[in-house]
Design goal:
Elements (H helix, E strand, L loop, with lengths): L1 H44 L7 H35 L2 H40 L3 H204 L3 H16 L6
Protein name: E3 ubiquitin protein ligase
Subcellular location: Nucleus
GO molecular function: ubiquitin protein ligase activity; zinc ion binding
Length: about 350
């Protein structure tokens, strides 16, 4: 519906523009005809042409501008009503739509009345100022348009009356619906209050029942824990009695063992005194042995150092002997072999063999 209204408004604006263009063209045409008629009448009446057409054109343009402003204002009001219409409910929307239609119809009636008045005024002025056949023809056309406008006004009045009747009917129906809705809302509130009371009572009873069940469960758990505690305490008492008997038996055995251990302790004390005396003697002997052992260790260290030096000297002598032997063998090879390159290559292989590790070999 809103889109249709927007399309209708756009169409109305286009029709208004077309009408304005048509009126301007007719005014230009009339201006040309008036000039020609003025020239003819001037030749007949001695060149006296009345300047009526220009004033008429300016007046019509002024009227069209005022109508355009009114149309813009009506468009803004209708747009505001449309925005209000979007934000209300369906019933209020129908009411707003009817009110907008009524306002629009009244505005159209007022516009038609003003147009009729303007046409009548212009007709009077033209009757006063123009007396030729063209003016009479124009007057007849204007009278026909006035009759058409009167008929349109009558139709608009009928439509307005029907719209008013429909608005009264819809307003009465809306009031009846409002009263019925108020009664239904009151009944719903009463039902909601009753349901709320029942729900609150039920919730309270459920809470009381739940608390009673929880208390019963707590008491049952407490009784169970108390029975288990009593049984555990009885078991503890029985175990303590058994421990008491065992401790009595152990006490007698311990007393016997204590007497035996006291006797053994006295005997061990005597043995300890004897062993302490023997330990003192052994300590003296041990100190002597330690002194002798230190002297022997010092002598052994000196001898080992001397042996290590001798072994080092022996290894150096062995290495010198081996190097001398290699030199002798080399000299023999040089004497036996004609070419010295083979000897050198053999020595290089020997050196490589000595440089390579056994795992690589």
């Amino acid at each position: 519906d809103i889109k249709k209204e927007d399309d209708d408004e756009a169409k109305d604006n286009e029709e208004c523009d077309r009408k304005e263009d048509k009126i301007k063209k007719e005014m230009k045409k009339e201006g040309k005809d008036g000039k020609e008629a003025g020239v003819g009448s001037g030749s007949k009446q001695g060149g006296a042409a009345p300047p009526v057409k220009d004033s008429r054109e300016t007046e019509i343009i002024r009227n069209l501008k005022s109508e355009h402003k009114k149309a813009v204002n009506d468009y803004r009001e209708l747009k505001l009503l449309l925005d209000m219409y979007k934000g209300v409910g369906k019933e209020q929307r129908d009411k707003v739509q009817l009110m907008a239609a009524e306002k629009k119809a009244r505005q159209e009636v007022e516009d038609l009345k003003t147009q009729v008045k303007k046409l009548q005024d212009s007709k009077r002025e033209e009757r006063k100022k123009l007396a030729d056949e063209e003016a009479i023809r124009k007057i007849k056309q204007l009278e026909e348009s006035v009759h058409q406008l009167h008929r349109q006004v009558a139709v608009q009045k009928q439509e307005e009356e029907t719209l008013l009747n429909e608005m009264e009917v819809t307003g009465q129906a809306f009031e009846d619906m409002q009263e019925q809705n108020i009664r239904l809302i009151q009944q719903l509130r009463e039902k909601d209050d009753a349901n709320f009371k029942l729900m609150s009572e039920r919730i309270k009873s459920n809470q009381i029942h739940q608390l009673a069940n929880e208390e019963r469960n707590v008491l049952q758990e407490q009784t169970n824990t108390l029975t288990t505690q009593v049984e555990a305490q009885n078991q503890v008492v029985r175990k303590l009695e058994e421990k008491e008997r065992l401790l009595q038996n152990n006490l007698t055995t311990v007393e016997k063992e204590l007497t035996l251990r006291q006797q053994a302790l006295e005997m061990h004390k005597r043995k300890a005194i004897e062993s302490a005396q023997s330990a003192a003697d052994l300590k003296l002997h041990l100190e002597k042995y330690h002194a002798q052992m230190k002297e022997a260790q010092q002598v052994v260290a000196e001898k080992t150092m001397a042996l290590e030096q001798e072994a080092f000297k022996y290894r150096r002598v062995q290495e010198e002997i081996a190097s001398l032997r290699r030199k002798v063998e080399r000299a023999k090879k040089f004497e036996m072999v004609d070419r010295a390159d083979e000897v050198l290559m053999e020595e290089i292989r020997d050196y490589k063999d000595t440089l390579t590790c056994p795992s690589c070999k």
